[in-house]
Design brief:
Number of helices: 0
Order of helices and strands: EEEEEEEE
Largest sheet: 4 strands, antiparallel
CATH superfamily: RNA polymerase II/Efflux pump adaptor protein, barrel-sandwich hybrid domain
Distance between the termini: 6 Å
Number of domains: 1
Strand content: over 45%
CATH architecture: Beta Barrel
Structural class: mainly beta
Shape: globular
CATH topology: OB fold (Dihydrolipoamide Acetyltransferase, E2P)
Strand order of the largest sheet: 1-8-6-3
Length: about 70
Amino acid sequence: MATTQVTSEVIGSVWKIEKAEGDAVAEGELIMILESMKMEIPVEAPVAGTLAAIKVKPEESVEEDQVLCLIES
């Protein structure tokens, strides 16, 4: 089983988490939404699989390239 790290493309904060650990996700499916400079940035699954871990919480600040979650496929 392969594990894929999903990382942040921007510096910002976690606005909303749409999925929970253990949920199945399809490639391209929305996992969470980040907020940066009053813009909403969707974070989508790069691969299909199971959401193994969510590494951030709502309103938490994130850095560019920070790991947000892990997907097992």
